[in-house]
């Protein structure tokens, strides 16, 4: 079956064509200008970052061969042909990995407790006073913006080398990140239960305890689990600055060119991160229903 | 004053047995979980050598350090710090852009609506996951071995680790795109490439642009820390000043980082607003 498509008479069509072309031309011009601006920014950035394409091309082979080397044992065979030799230090590495996970767990717990204590002051609908809200928000922002590893560098000097510095660094960073997320949950909470509690003469504290907390507790736990997951990654590099965990071993292996050790430790870290991702995802699904998974 | 009627407890009990007679297992899960979590916490504290004495002496040290940080003072090296900050921003912008350009074509391979067969899609996804599983700092160390110390290693480190993150985000954006426009192109006789170019890209590009801007922002933070292992930028200066205990310079550098991050935050917020409109900014 064929249907005739009606075509407008030429003069009418020409006018429409013209206005279409104009509209498109304006859009194209804006796009070209934006692209040119972006390109200029990139060129300036490339000069600033001392990008040297010749270095990249000369040494790109090194990048590939680096992976070739970290996948080769000392006797010249591939790592997977001899797993016992590849993972020769697995006892020590698993121990360090356990320490890494503990660092992130303890750090997340401390951070969650502090975030819990602070977030009601930072949320718009529950904060007792505007100046308090302002102060707490700035504090959380500071804790969140300064990277965890910078805190770790300073804490290593104050508390000495060891996992304690790593735990405290992670705790501070988590306080900042979780405090913000927690206060956002509180801001989304339903205000009617709070009015109900207040109308019976409850204090601010009992408003929080009996009206807000039951609404937000599940969200808190979900975010804390997510943070734990992120912190495991973060804790795996805390050892770079001497703050405990598997990072110490990894940085030694990379700097001293123990090639097969690098790949073995990396594989252990990646597998652990996978396992923790999947298990916390499962746990969140079980505890808070499918919606909380995202 | 009128008295409210006294509730009849027996009747309520009979009416809502689920509320009053919860099985012991349901009542005990929550306390058990809390006890378990705190037990692990205490074990962790012991295992990681926490002691009140250590904590107190550390805190007093920290107090001294904080006192010595005031007032922030760059000394004579302000120009060096400013150029280091510029280097950091360059690393963030360039690394993110390279990652985005490289990840866009590859992310098509990881999207369900483009590659229906799992055989090709799953390896690509696992590759993205593995790249993301390795921290940016580790990538920086690897690249330093390859191209030497300096900001270029930082650019490549950010590019590689963001490649993994972008691959996942882009493929999710592509999967969430509306099918109807693609079908429209196909119905009018377009090829598979036409479908991607005219059906998918107009839908996903604004989303992608928003994500790239957001990553530039968060990479400003990452770029400050990869300097600590020697990959250039302001992190290098920061780590050096911390090691030689020049606390006034340290606090000045931290302030600089905070201001730079806030500025980038503001700019990218404005740009995202321009690209994708108010709704998606939040």
UniProtKB/TrEMBL annotation, chain A:
Residues 97-280 form the ABC transmembrane type-1 domain. Keywords: Cell membrane, Membrane, Transmembrane, Transmembrane helix, Transport. CDD domains: TM_PBP2. It is a multi-pass membrane protein. The keyword Transport applies. This is Phosphonate ABC transporter, permease protein PhnE. Its main location: membrane. GO terms for cellular component: plasma membrane. It holds the Pfam family BPD_transp_1. The keyword Transmembrane helix applies. It comes from Bradyrhizobium australiense. It is found in: Cell membrane. GO terms for molecular function: ABC-type phosphonate transporter activity. PANTHER family: ABC TRANSPORT SYSTEM PERMEASE PROTEIN P69, PHOSPHONATES TRANSPORT SYSTEM PERMEASE PROTEIN.
TrEMBL record, chain B:
Keywords: Membrane, Transmembrane, Transmembrane helix, Transport. InterPro entries: MetI-like, MetI-like_sf, PhnE/PtxC. It is found in: Cell membrane. The chain crosses the membrane at residues 28-48, 91-115, 136-160, 196-216, 223-239, 251-269. The keyword Transport applies. Pfam families: BPD_transp_1 (PF00528). The keyword Transmembrane applies. GO terms for molecular function: ABC-type phosphonate transporter activity. PROSITE patterns: ABC_TM1. Residues 85-268 form the ABC transmembrane type-1 domain. It comes from the Bacteria. It is a multi-pass membrane protein. One of its GO terms (cellular component) is plasma membrane. Belongs to the binding-protein-dependent transport system permease family. This is Phosphonate ABC transporter, permease protein PhnE.
